[in-house]
């Protein structure tokens, strides 16, 4: 039995929020309602100009707490090197398995200060889980698995393709980012043409 396709125009909101369990049939909220995470700076430490991963983790945690969210953990992959355009990824775990990534990019170097911006993203594993929940809720059919070809960065027009298995049949779906506002990423999940 082939799972019904999500309704045309069905838009998903990715926000990183503790309430993934409260996903609606028409709209999935994965939310971070927080102040813009840009223009941050940090003093240089030893070993070259960089924002340490510990400082990034503390900054993200504090900003989320100010916005009313309490992350269980924030884990950055590495220090952010003090060179414009350099990036690192940080995973934010809000509760249970509700997590999302932030791509942190150095935007300006001013003496010993590094300014950086952050945009939302979903790793492959995070996107697999989100697509499975999204298709299951929009179709009313239990999804056995979703296997996406990669993650999804918070850039308008970005796409990922996912094989979704339900009732023993696998169908291909396309996930397309329709817009990004701050740390909110909106995207469509629909059967591939």
Automatic annotation (TrEMBL):
Source species of the chain: Mycolicibacterium rhodesiae (Mycobacterium rhodesiae)
Domain DUF4333: 36-111, 123-182
Keywords: Signal
A Pfam family: DUF4333
Signal peptide: 1-35
Coiled-coil regions listed in the entry: none
Protein name: DUF4333 domain-containing protein
InterPro entries xrefs: DUF4333
């Amino acid at each position: 039995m082939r799972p019904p396709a999500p309704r045309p125009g069905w838009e998903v909101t990715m926000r990183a929020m503790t309430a993934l369990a409260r996903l609606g049939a028409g709209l999935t909220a994965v939310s971070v309602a927080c102040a813009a995470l840009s223009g941050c700076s940090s003093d240089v430490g030893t070993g070259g100009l960089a924002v340490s991963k510990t400082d990034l983790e503390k900054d993200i945690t504090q900003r989320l707490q100010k916005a009313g969210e309490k992350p269980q953990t924030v884990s950055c992959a590495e220090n952010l090197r003090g060179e414009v355009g350099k990036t690192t990824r940080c995973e934010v775990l809000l509760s249970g398995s509700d997590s999302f990534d932030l791509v942190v990019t150095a935007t300006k170097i001013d003496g010993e200060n590094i300014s950086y911006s952050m945009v939302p993203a979903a790793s492959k594993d995070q996107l697999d889980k989100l697509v499975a929940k999204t298709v299951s809720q929009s179709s009313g059919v239990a999804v056995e698995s979703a296997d996406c070809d990669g993650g999804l960065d918070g850039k308008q027009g970005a796409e990922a393709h996912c094989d979704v298995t339900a009732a023993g049949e696998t169908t291909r779906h396309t996930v397309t980012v329709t817009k990004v506002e701050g740390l909110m990423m909106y995207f469509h999940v629909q059967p591939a043409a």
